[in-house]
Amino acid sequence: MSSQTDEGLAASESEIAQSVSFGRGPSGTGGANRGVGAGPRARPSRTGSVLCGGGRHGDLPLQYAAWRKRTTPLSLRLVEGPVSRLPADIHLHSKLCGHATGELEEYIQRAVELDLAAIGFSFHLPVTIPFPQKVNVTREELDTLVRDVARLRDAYQGTIPVLFGGEADYLPGAEDQVAALAADYPFDHLIGSVHFIGDWAFDHPATVARYADWDRRRLYETYFRLLCDAMRTGLFDIVGHIDLIKKFGHRLEGDWSDLVAEVCAVARQRDLCVEINTAGFDKPVGEQYASEAILRACFAAGVPIAFGSDAHAPREVGRHFPRAVALARAVGYDHTARFRARERTLHPL
Ligand SMILES: [Zn+2]
Ligand SMILES: [Zn+2]
Fold first, then answer.
1. Strand runs (DSSP E) across the chain, as ranges?
2. Which ligand is closest in space to the CA of residue 92?
3. Which ligand has the nearest atom to the CA of 99?
4. How far is the CA of 93 from the centre of ligand 1 (A)?
5. Which domains does the chain have, with CATH numbers?
């Protein structure tokens, strides 16, 4: 399969010590027909409570061992090689997204400077949104971007893998638009993001006053319900900025682990990867999306992670990645995901 060839080429360059690829059915089916069950990654033995002792799965985390038991046949690929540098940044925009700046190649050059393992554009896809400003690319622009990214992928072959992805708004009723885009374009990955509650672009600074209209618990319930609905569509590979609702510092106090547990369970069930989005460090909330509590719940549930800077300018590529990697490792993760032709591979962290 071409994706494996490309990943193999990338791997031989420098970074994959132990990459685990979970088969996801026939290629070309996009996200819609994906089977459940691609589980967390194999990890080397280490002391800790998550390891089960002895037997065939003696060195594997309990979650992983349980998943292996449930899921057969299993397509499992291990690639030996040196340990990784900084992980792939799979969430970058471009000036065609309307509110971003810089040429595509400038983003790539910044990623090379930082020695990122790969770079993945995630253009704001042309989905109809209740927002007056241009933030999404048009189909015509996407046609151009496909060609531009392909050209740059060739130009940087052997230097850094360059991936073509999209970030799609989830809006109830707009699922068909996303499905059509997924069918029409050769995406490496699709990020599903909730930016709207009804007609409220809750992550836009101009609309912050509307937070005052909401009971905080009901706001979080409403947001996470939309997010779970997005995950259940089967259209996406990655959940974007999973707790974006906290962006301006409107945190939910007290115990809301029930909401976290549900989100993680749905991500696991629908075989989604959760993004550690480092843009949050630069927002009023002052921390990454997802919160450490959500990351811990994701890890316990066996949900893989990917890293995204949500860069809207070349200088933002890979921002705060060392900090985010340290957090992910502290939580227990030792692999990070990326996608090629919507096939997921896991790479050492
Ligand atoms: Zn977003
Ligand atoms: Zn974004």
1. 18-22, 76-80, 89-92, 119-124, 162-169, 189-193, 196-197, 200-201, 238-239, 273-277, 305-308, 335-340, 343-348
2. 2
3. 2
4. 10
5. 84-348 (3.20.20.140)
